[in-house]
Amino acid sequence: MFDPLDLYSPDEQVQLEKITEATTIFTKLHQDDPVVVITAVNDNRIDGIKAQEEDEDEEEEDSIIDILDLPPATYATPQASLCVLLLLKPDKQVNFNTSNDDYDDSTNSKSVEIICKEKEISSELLSSLLTWYTDLWPNSRLNTELKICTRIPRLRSYGQKELLLNYYTSLLKKYDNCNEDYINDQIVKELSLRISENCGRSAQPSMTRDFNLQNLVHVIQLYEPSLTADNLGWKTWGSSLILSQELVNDLETNKNNKKSKSIRRVLELGAGTGLVGIAWACKWRQLYGNESIEMFVTDLPDIVTNLRKNVQNNDLDDFVVADVLDWTNPEDFIKKYSDEKFDTILIADPIYSPNHPEWVVNMICKFLAINGRCHLEIPLRAKYALEREKLSNLLEQHGLVVYNERSSEGMDDWGVVKYLYKEIGWDTTLTD
Ligand SMILES: C[S@@+](CC[C@H](N)C(=O)[O-])C[C@H]1O[C@@H](n2cnc3c(N)ncnc32)[C@H](O)[C@@H]1O
Description:
The chain is an alpha/beta fold. Helix content is 47%, strand content 16%. The chain folds into three domains: 4-62; 70-199, no CATH class; 207-431, Rossmann fold, CATH 3.40.50. It has helices at 11-29, 34-62, 78-87, 112-119, 123-136, 145-151, 161-175, 182-197, 238-253, 258-261, 275-288, 301-313, 331-337, 356-367, 385-397, 428-431; strands spanning 207-211, 220-224, 265-269, 294-299, 320-324, 342-348, 368-379, 400-412, 415-426. It has a seven-stranded mixed sheet, sandwiched between helices. A two-stranded antiparallel ribbon has the order 1-2. Helix 3 (78-87) packs parallel to helix 8 (182-197) and helix 9 (238-253) runs parallel beside helix 11. Bound molecules: S-adenosylmethionine. GO terms for molecular function: protein-lysine N-methyltransferase activity. InterPro entries: Methyltransf_16 (IPR019410), SAM-dependent_MTases_sf (IPR029063). Keywords: Transferase.
C-alpha cells in the first residue's frame, strides 16, 4: 500500500552521506594536482563562511515544518498523537483576534511550561512525543521540547487546513473503533474538537474569549456556549467590542466631569454574553468604585444563565444584576424591579428581524430618563438596510433625537465589518 511517508526521510543523514561521498570522489580525482586541491581547500573555506551564513538563513527555514513531520497515525503511540492534538488546540482569542485560524506569533516567545499549561499538556505526554522525534523517528526540526511546542501549533497557520483535516481523519480511522480506554476517549474528544473548530463560528464548540480594552485595567473573560437553536446571544458580536471601547474611552475622558459622575442607573438591552455592560461596569468600578450605582444587563431567558455566569466570572455580581427583560413583554421586569427610568441605556446589534426596530424603540421610550442617553451600535449589514431605516423613522416619530452619529470599522469572527454608532436622547425642546 502507498504510504506518503515513503517519500519522506529524515534529511540530515542523507545530506551528510552525499557530502562525504562527493569529498572522497574529488580527492581521488585530483590527488596528483596540488594546485587544484589547495584552491579547493580555499574554496571550501570561503564556502564554509558562506555556509555558516546560509546555515543561519536555513535555521529560519528549518523552523518551518509540514504535516508530514507529524507522527503518522499508523505508527505513533497514542500518547504522541494526543500530545500533537493538544498542541494544535487554538490559542485563546483576544478581541476577535483570528488566532483561532492563524498562528499567533506570541507562541514563539512563550516558554514550554506556559505553552503546556495553556494547552493542558502533561510532562509525560510531552516526553512521549519528544521520544518519537529523538528515538523512533529522528527529526532535527522537532528534537527538543521547545521546538515541538512552538513549531507544531504553527501548522494551523500555513494554509494547510485541508491537510490537517486529512491528518485528523487518519487518526479518527484508527481510534474510532478502539477499546474504550481513557487515552482513546481523550483522542476522540480532542479530534472532534479540532475538526469542529475548522467549521466556522456557527459550528464551533464552546469557548472562552478575552477582551483587552484600552483604558481598562481588567481583562474581560467571556464564556460563549456553542451556538445552538438560533441563540445568537451565546456569541459576542463585533458591535459590542466597538461600543465597549467607545464607552470606556468616554468614561475615561469625562472622569472629572460632574455630569458623568451623576449617572445612577444603567440598563443594557439584549446583552448576549455581556461585553458592553461588563466593560462599562469594570470601567466605572475602576474610576469610582461601585457605590450608589445600579446596573442591569438583560436578555431573553435562554441567554441570561450564561450572561449571569459571565458577570460572576468578571467579579461584578455585587453590583451588576443579570436578568430577563423581553422586549415583547417588559412588564415582568418592571414588576420585579419597578418602572424607574435609566440614565444610560446600552444596546449592541439588536436589529436583525422586521420586528426588532419597533421593539427596540419601545424599550428606549419605556426606560430612558428624560435627560438620559442611549448608546446604540449596529452593524451595517446590507440585508437589514430597511430595518435600519425603520429604526431611524421610529426614533423620530417618538420624539427621540440622534445627538451623535459616527461610523467605523471593526472585526467580527468573519472579518472586517462596518458599524454605525448613535447617541440617542429625548428631544428636550419638545418637553420645555
Ligand atoms: C446579535 S445578538 C447581540 C448580542 C450582544 N449585544 C452583542 O453584541 O454581542 C442580539 C441579542 O438580542 C437579544 N434579543 C433578541 N430579541 C430579544 C427580545 N425580544 N428581548 C430581549 N432580547 C432579545 C438576543 O437574545 C441576543 O442576545
